[in-house]
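Our consortium's second objective concerns turning raw sequence data into structural hypotheses that experimental partners can test. To show how far this objective has progressed, the report includes one record in full. It was chosen at random from the queue rather than selected for favorable results. The single chain below, 107 residues long, was entered without modification.
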Amino acid sequence: MATPTTLTEVKWQKRADGDYCLSGRLERDTVSAFWRQRAAWLPTESQVTLDLSAVERVDSAGMVMLLHLCQAVAHSGGHLTLHHVPEQLNTLLRLSHVDSLFAANIT
């Protein structure tokens, strides 16, 4: 198994080609540093699956980071699918009225 990339409290782990796991706390205090170092972890596959079951907490900054991640993968011609989306994130998406932006990315 690959070694996870850890930046602050966010961990990005590649499990197999196109299969990743994100864990930790996706919040204002952690996502900024993690996103700035995206060259170290941003997937390059055309079909990417991201398991969010190990995400402990997510706030609006984490939600925006995931939106940017979906857009970055799409910009490079790929598609990102989010699995095991935490209920906290689903609630934020609905309350922010951006759930339609993620509709094609959540299973």
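The partners drew two points from this record. The helical segments are 28-36, 60-75, 87-95, 99-102. The domain at 5-102 is CATH 3.30.750.24 (Transcription Regulator spoIIAA). Both points have been shared with the crystallography group to help prioritize constructs.
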